[in-house]
């Protein structure tokens, strides 16, 4: 029996490990291509030898990227950091506060209202772009930073996820103990609830940061001034010009490589909060 189980177990492990290796190769392949292609000039890219480091010119590509059009690429970079960083931070706070309210408080129409939130999860964001543009036009914020920032403050999936985290991480006894000690509801949320649900806050932040950083359609609809573009829209504009001017190809590839850096930094630096947040604010 043991001799039969051992080969089966070995085959199962080999199959799982093989599938994981294939998944890793599949995910890393575009990144490796991007890393090597960013070292090429236009001729090297069009020649089809992007996977070699022959003719290494990463420094030249970075220099041309910084100099083109008075360094507008890094202006787009700052815009993306503003949209994604500030938008994701505010959205995470709003989502956690809403999820906390749905979990802690009882009020008339609570479940019906939460059902509307779940309905919002099913609506694709692209379907809302035109209505949001019309609303932004009525308010007069089209072609401003607010046209991109305000819509990303609301995330129905973040509210749903926050309620799930609150239900799992916030015991009613901890909130009651804080109220008995004289803490107000806002203090209870800020000092107890938010700290206990910090893994949920970080999760919503990372999801929203990634979504806003990669957001393309909303800025395309809302913005016409190139100085307000995020990276996604700016690189798209350059790539559209690359068919007529091949010198844009190295700029697009090098710019795309730099655009990956904040996402990697965000995930690597914030992953520790998933563990740390599990015990933050707990009752001693």
Automatic annotation (TrEMBL):
Q: What's the domain of life for this entry? A: Bacteria
Pfam families given for it? Answer: BPD_transp_1
Q: Where is the signal peptide?
A: none
Record-annotated membrane-spanning stretches = 14-35, 81-101, 113-134, 146-171, 192-213, 248-270
> How is this protein situated with respect to the membrane?
Multi-pass membrane protein
Asked whether the keyword Transmembrane is assigned, the reply is yes
Location(s) in or outside the cell: Cell membrane
Which keywords accompany this UniProt record? Answer: Cell membrane, Membrane, Transmembrane, Transmembrane helix, Transport
Where do the ABC transmembrane type-1 domain residues begin and end?
77-269
**UniProt entry tagged with the keyword RNA-binding:** no
The family note in this entry says: Belongs to the binding-protein-dependent transport system permease family.
Record's protein name: Carbohydrate ABC transporter permease
Q: Native species of this protein? A: Streptomyces zaomyceticus
Lineage of the organism: Bacteria, Bacillati, Actinomycetota, Actinomycetes, Kitasatosporales
């Amino acid at each position: 029996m043991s001799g039969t189980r051992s080969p089966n177990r070995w085959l199962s492990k080999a199959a799982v490990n093989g599938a994981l290796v294939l998944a890793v190769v599949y995910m890393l392949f575009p990144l490796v291509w991007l890393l090597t292609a960013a070292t090429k000039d236009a001729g090297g890219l069009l020649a089809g030898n992007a996977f070699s480091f022959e003719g290494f010119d990463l420094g030249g590509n970075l220099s041309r990227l910084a100099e083109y059009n008075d360094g507008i690429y890094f202006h787009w970079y700052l815009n993306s950091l503003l949209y994604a960083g500030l938008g994701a931070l505010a959205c995470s706070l709003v989502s956690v506060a809403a999820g906390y309210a749905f979990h802690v408080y009882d009020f008339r129409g609570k479940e019906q209202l939460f059902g509307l939130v779940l309905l919002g999860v099913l609506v694709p964001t692209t379907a809302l772009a035109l209505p949001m543009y019309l609303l932004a036009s009525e308010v007069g914020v089209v072609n401003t930073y607010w046209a991109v920032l305000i819509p990303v403050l609301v995330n129905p999936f973040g509210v749903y996820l926050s309620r799930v985290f609150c239900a799992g991480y916030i015991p009613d006894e901890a909130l009651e103990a804080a109220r008995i000690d004289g803490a107000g509801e806002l203090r209870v949320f800020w000092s107890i609830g938010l700290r206990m649900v910090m893994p949920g806050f970080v999760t919503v932040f990372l999801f929203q940061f990634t979504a806003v950083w990669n957001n393309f359609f909303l800025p395309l609809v809302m913005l016409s001034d190139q100085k307000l573009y995020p990276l996604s829209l700016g690189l798209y504009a350059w790539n559209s010009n690359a068919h007529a001017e091949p010198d844009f190809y190295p700029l697009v590839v090098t710019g795309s490589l730099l655009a990956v850096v904040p996402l990697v930094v965000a995930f690597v630096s914030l992953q520790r909060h998933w563990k740390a947040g599990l015990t933050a604010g707990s009752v001693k």
